[in-house]
Structure formats: C-alpha cells, structure tokens
Design goal:
heterodimer, A: mainly beta, 7-stranded mixed beta sheet, 4-stranded antiparallel beta sheet, 47% strand, globular, B: mainly beta, 6-stranded mixed beta sheet, 5-stranded antiparallel beta sheet, 11 strands
C-alpha cells in the first residue's frame, strides 16, 4: 500500500441498506477525515479523527458514523442509506490536525443510493 | 457559516496564463490552500498561503490578501494536462478546512 486507499471504488446500494466505506493509510498520519463531494457544492467534511481512539463531527455528519480503532483505518458507515447520500466520498489524512497541514486524499468511492 | 466563492468555469489557450480568483468570508483564518483535481481523481495539494503576498512554485503561483479576503491562483504557460478543477480551501482552525465549489479550467489547443 502506498499512501491512502479506499474501497470499494464504486457501489450501487438500495435505500435502507447498511454500507461501510473503507479507508486505509500507511503514512502513519494521526489525523483522518471523510468528505463528500457533490456537484456545485464542493467538498464537505462529514467526520474527522485527530488521533486513534477519537472522532468528531464535521459539517454534515447526520446519517453517518465513524470509528478509529487504530492509526491506519478510518471506516465510514451509513446505517440506513438514503438517496440524498448519493455522492463521491473522499477519505483524507494529514500528519496532524493542525491548520497548516496539507491533506492527502484517497481516490474516492462513488456511491449511488437508489 | 463559511462563504468561499470562485468562478465555476474558465477556458484558456495552451501557452497562455489564467488567473483563478477566490474570495472568502469565514469565521477565523489559519491559511488558504489550493488543490488541483482532475476529473474522476482525488484532489492533490498545490499551494498554501498564510501570510500576505505571492508564493511561486514553477508555473503555478498563489497570492493572498488577508485584509481583502482574497486569493488567486496563477497558472502560467498552460499545458493540456492543466485541464482540471482547482479548489480553493480556507483553514479556519484545527481540522477545519472549508472548500469552495471549485473552478473547472479547460485548456484548448
């Protein structure tokens, strides 16, 4: 693994189903983030984690949950998917959560909820 | 809330110069980032400005005026591979990065 990876690449999901998007980084970064990107709206922060064992809510957290059991993994779970959660999801990481830190992005997961 | 504005689209000719403006009104300011995003790919870091002035990196330069809430990204000697979306993002504190909607630049031969 080099950098940050996400799985799956894309997924079509029926409304009401549970879905977990996976994110793994091998850069030993302390901070990790989940964003969604929608046309005309830009990237919006869903949840973040400053370090393993801690998580926090971003701008649009409703309907999503995260966990950070270790440094490398930061899964995002949709407990009961709805069509408005159709989006492209990007995971990102940075050495720390400090404001000057560049964030490194994964390749994204394109999710369609029908 | 945070308000970050940038033009939706710009078109320029190969070899030319293009300037992408970004204006912001945010609660707090800890620096401004520019990211490049090719279609279907992840955003990648281009520049970071926290002090007023111009930062130059090869063909790309970024300018910041904190008093005016204004930044621009200057792309010189445009190449076809520069066709992408350019995202302006303002850091308003630890972990808090607010993004504009992005400017799609199309480079024509």
């Amino acid at each position: 693994i080099a950098g940050i990876t996400q799985a799956p690449t894309s997924q079509i999901l029926a409304a009401g189903r549970r879905m977990t998007l996976r994110c793994t980084q091998d850069m030993r970064h302390n901070a990790m983030y989940w964003y969604r990107q929608d046309l005309g709206l830009g990237l919006r922060l869903i949840h973040y984690s400053n370090t393993a064992g801690t998580t926090g809510k971003g701008e649009v957290p409703d309907g999503y949950s995260v966990s950070r059991a270790n440094t490398d993994d930061f899964p995002l779970t949709l407990a009961s998917a709805v069509p408005s959660q159709t989006s492209v999801y990007f995971c990102a990481s940075s050495p720390t959560s400090g404001s000057a830190n560049e964030q490194f992005f994964g390749p994204g997961t394109r999710l369609t909820v029908l | 809330g945070q308000n970050i504005d940038q033009p939706t689209e710009m078109t320029a000719t190969e070899g030319a110069i293009v300037q992408i403006n970004c204006t912001y009104q945010t609660s707090g300011f800890n620096g401004l980032f520019w990211y490049q995003q090719h279609a279907g790919e992840a955003p990648t870091f281009l520049s970071y400005n926290v002090l007023d002035g111009l930062e130059e990196k090869g063909r790309f330069s970024s300018f910041l005026s904190r008093s005016k809430g204004y930044s621009y990204l200057l792309l010189k000697e445009l190449q076809m591979k520069d066709s992408a979306s350019y995202l302006c993002a303002v850091s308003t504190g630890d972990y808090k990065l607010s993004f504009g909607a992005g400017t799609t630049v199309t480079v024509r031969a």
